[in-house]
Amino acid sequence: MNTQHGVALNICVAAALRRGIIDETEAGRLGLPSANLQSGFTLSGLGALAEASLTCDRVVQF
């Protein structure tokens, strides 16, 4: 969806870390050998959600 339609696929960083999902930045910060977040997805926080909700016409959450 990200590559075909240009949709931002933001993942809550707190929820992802609780479930063991990390990107390259978090893997480096935590001293882990590799990341497991699929390409196209981005770890983001509440600030990104608030900013996106101000500039879009709908938010899909699941």
UniProtKB/TrEMBL annotation:
Record-level GO BP terms: tRNA wobble position uridine thiolation
A family per Pfam: DsrE
Signal peptide range in chain numbering: none
A GO MF term: sulfur carrier activity
Top-level division of the source organism's lineage: Bacteria
Cellular component aspect of the GO annotation: sulfurtransferase complex
Protein name: tRNA 5-methylaminomethyl-2-thiouridine synthase TusD
Organism field: Salmonella enterica subsp. enterica serovar Urbana str. R8-2977
